[in-house]
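Note to self: user wants both folds in one dump. Writing first protein now.
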Amino acid sequence: MGNPRLRLFLVLILAAVLLPVIAGCEHLAPVIVKNNTDKVLTIYEDATRLHQMPGRPKNLAGTVQPGEELRPEHIPSTFNTYVFEAIDAQGNAVYSKVFTRQELEKMNWEVVITEE
């Protein structure tokens, strides 16, 4: 590997392979969903890079017991709009809110679910 051109070529190949992988990695949001109701809730979430409501959330974040919290580990922090919805055991939506990234950052990424 004494040839400087060969070294440069290998560095460029390595950069061409690793750069898209690194750029594709998104930082995850440190979201905490707190259930301040007396019901077991199933939490759904969705997010979009657009500045508009993404519609009904379709991603299952998990189930949370009364008084407990849930820490979904798959929500990217790079989106602009987030929606969270809580469904009770009877299938009723007891909570549904849309947040901007800035709002969630001000709330320390903490979503507190109360019955509306």
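First done. Writing the second protein, which came from a different request thread.
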Amino acid sequence: MIVPETIDFLSNVLIDNKIWINKNLGEPRLLERNVKYIAPYWLSNESDRGVNRIYHILDMTSTLDGKSYEITLGNSFNLIENWHRLDQFRRFQYVPLSEFKLRELAEGILVPAKENNKIERVRSTDLLTTKKEDRFFSEFWIGKEIKLKKYWKTYYEGFGYIEKFKSSNSYILEISFSNKPKELPLFNLEPVNKTLKAFYYHAKKTYLPITEFELEGPLYLQEVSRGSEIITWLANGFLPIFSIAFIVLTIELKLKKLQGQKLSNSLIESKIKSGKLNDDLTNEKIISHRIKNLHDRLEFLKEHHPNHYQRIVNNTPPKEIIDGLNNLVDEGINKIRFTKNPVNKLNFDKESENMEEIEL
């Protein structure tokens, strides 16, 4: 189902995982039409106009004022190229998945549809590849046509960044992920690192005055510890502020995912009738406990870093960065640590004892 949306509702979709439909526009016939997925069609004049992401529908209820339908969103799937073929821009409409060259592999999981009897296998958080993206896909996965000269030239031309980092105070950011099998490569390292670097640059540009922004260096990958799955980055004075921003947004995204996993009232009633509620209620208690813990952590950050917290919640990052952070959450972030004070470069290995820690 395609729903026209103005950019004013962007944060509701990306952060709150909700889409609202005014009842004056009609009732979405989800069961009748076997609709399991929904996509906002962004009515923007910019390059992001159209459908760029498809969401699994978890639930549909009526709002408290009775004027709208509230649709809760689950898994989401990026499209490489925006879809623009909407018939009209005032009311929702139904479109088959085949329009997006997708098919359902399992409930809540979409994969590219068959093309020339071939199926590309991708995870739900992967970008869907097209012929236009084949070159980058081959470069990323198999090393085909990597422009080595470009990489080495850029490296040698950037020695000024190295000297700038050496002459400045540095800070540490550590992110722990759920353990990956040590016998397997770190398939996700490049997108994880690029997501952090992209968000770091955006946050610097958003939160800092131009004079401070120009003085700050980038974020650098420093260490990857297998077994513990800790990835460490180093940066200059902005890193503590960035760490708080990263933690706040990660907690908010985790909360939305957990809240989406809670049972709806209608589902609870049906399970009571079928006598299959016990296991689900146990799971509900676990989810509710995790949600409470994350809310407590947000309150802690709000209390101890009020200025940074307010600045963060007032500046929602672009969709692409939010999507990247959502993918990081899906990769299993479970702990974030950072230094609030400059590290002692002569005693670097001892700095882990002085880090602020937030478990997720």
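Dump finished. Worth passing along: Residues 116-132 have pLDDT under 50 and may be disordered.
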